[in-house]
């Protein structure tokens, strides 16, 4: 089983994606996750290009303890007609104090002549000098050959000369970059094979792709088949434009389907969890459709086939989802058949009869018509099913609710906003209908309406239902359905919560965002208060 | 230039994606878009599996006038041990009254024996009988060979026999389906070449992939290179699990990079518009990272390189974005250099001096730190830049605002929600500071807080600024930043509007969703009221 090294550049190239910013703390947390997954190299950033990245490498030395991965600092070759020993980029690179560094080198004639405005001789010298300088400072040196494929198609002699300049000076890796992302698999296969025949075993050939043709994963595979031993990419395909090679896709393709070794034993099972953890850290949901790690990757919807799939999963799933830490999911929707509902009831652990199943199917149809979707709201689905069999106690009953948001005089330019909520509930040790039930009126301020109603509801019930204090909201998502009717559209709220051992998500739907949030909030607290067997 | 037919199954397989439902009206509108794009075949649905789809084909006969595409009804072979002439599925297929039909046929031993519980002889007979029946009714018959690649790896003889059964009876197309989506490009290339050598020119070989390995596009290309002349897929890669082959990616790969002809002349330029139109109809945004058609596909972020890119776009873009109806976008962000701001000012048509550019860069840094992002909010960016040069008139000034949401007694189970907003503004024919300015207090109800404040603000200013009536909000999006702090998190609102000729988007950010919406709403109205040169 040939080894294919995994080089993760989520923290450098990945953060070029539009709309994502990461703090130094975020980057340290992500690096820990990457080490936990077991990639060979973690490219942490470009010290000097960015003050954050200097801080990252400084803190990494004391705060980051990697057991599997090697941390890499990124930089570039010296500038044209400059010297290595007074080059700020190279100095920053050494000051990052990592055992390995990766430098980007222009390996396409066009970019040397036009972008650098220098000669091909100087272009090759920049590479040789820089590798020599970093090697003599004791670093392992990987070289990212920028615009390699486009350059090779234009002038293969110069692109190979750039490679030789790096190899002669002791670069460990020659990483062929499809910088503009436009190369297709058959071209990658041919060019990597050419380079391999020149380089032999003098250095490891790497591949760095972008997904501009939707082929980054296939290109990386083609390169490995043609002799590359090192793949660069990002978790979840983060990266500028269309993103970099998605490591969460290419790793299982190579390791589970093609017999290569990418991660240490026992690590690929962590793929789904690490993918989601990193996405959360960057506040960017994993695409539900993402291969291997997406929530829909092993979801079966069609009601008719669910029982056939349950009998013989491997006839309907291209790999065992557990191999990458994901799982089969039977999606319950209005198309769900009776068998699906029965299976879900078994999964939850409730007894359900035929009439109750019909009730659940009717409820699902009505609610999905209103815009509810239970695919992402397991707790609301479980409550719906438990209510159908009558196993949900009434912990509290709301009489009324009001929330007021004020912008105080001062106008849009300067007015301060304040929000307060009032909630009136019936509650008691024996439920809202018990003899000892009481009416509680609570008021709470919040930094927004949902925050305020959450605070007021908790205050109103906390004395009678103290366990509510152990429930914490962890995520709040808003989706506008039928955006075309703008502010009059239906709003779908998903609210996630935890009690420290379990996580759950509930849903609320209404044209009124406050009402939608309120429905999701009530379900969330009720679900968290349900007695648990274990 | 060899022709590769495009078969779109957005309306059938694509609608299996989780979270999407389409009305018959939606489907008719999408079919019009597909015809406008110029695909060869539009698979409209499965009449009989779904009452909606029977209605779709009925209405299509009178309401859908296709100039380029052929409408196809989908179905399956007759059931095991049944007869064709009393088979409900086949009857529904004929009643759809399309000139071409596509039937799914089990072509893998496992699925014939285990899922159908029948013999291989009967499996082959089901295909032959069904094709013969439909052919004798005058239909062009395409056959989707289900689980073909997995079946071929298990028992190639039976899979080829299934193909022969279809060919002998006159099927026009043999569509090889990677139903579980687990096949990789080198396997597709080998198996398609095998099939091609058996079939020759007796029928067109098609390819139908799913993206479970992230290789659906590369697999489709590999199949075409091995002899397939027909690709099936969906717009934007819609489809169950990880989605079907994304036609918006594979078409430009084949046509712009490999010299095949997929669409009639002059149509591929419509790709981006059709992709977004279909996504909007299904209320599902196009992935900004989507190759070719995504909003980030040709976006350049790194401030340093923007001027180099502007000089020589083809050195930094793998195809001309205009070829697919997209465009280059220079992303303005805190990383923006002075050159980017200057270019943006030129684009908008304002004069800006060095000090004003510094002001804009400072404002961007501060606001992006708060969570603003101007990448998707061009109008807010333009206002920010126009304010820096002092060219935004003050149309109205808000003194204060209040919005109240009440749940009336009746409780969570039954309480009705009502929302009302009060807005106090200064406004006048010569602006809020004119001698003739007046204070207006308006109140409006709404089906949610944002709807109510929109109504109240418009009422308050409409007499003094009647042009506001021509501005309509078209979309409202809410994103929770730092979801980890749940209902206390920062909220980002994007609000889109139109005046019938122009569309624009503004942004508001605040921990308070009402405040964030209010900021976006004010900017939206101000932008719409700006005088236009043209």
From TrEMBL, chains A, B:
Reactions it catalyzes: pyruvate + acetyl-CoA + H2O = (3R)-citramalate + CoA + H(+)
Signal peptide range in chain numbering: none
Family: Belongs to the alpha-IPM synthase/homocitrate synthase family.
UniProt KW keywords: Acyltransferase, Amino-acid biosynthesis, Branched-chain amino acid biosynthesis, Isoleucine biosynthesis, Transferase
Family annotation (SUPFAM superfamilies): 2-isopropylmalate synthase LeuA, allosteric (dimerisation) domain, Aldolase
Top-level lineage group: Bacteria
Name assigned to this protein: Citramalate synthase
InterPro entries linked: 2-isopropylmalate_synth_dimer (IPR013709), AIPM/Hcit_synth_CS (IPR002034), Aldolase_TIM (IPR013785), Citramal_synthase (IPR005675), LeuA/HCS_post-cat (IPR054691), LeuA_allosteric_dom_sf (IPR036230), PYR_CT (IPR000891)
Enzyme superclass (EC): transferase
Organism: Ilumatobacter coccineus (strain NBRC 103263 / KCTC 29153 / YM16-304)
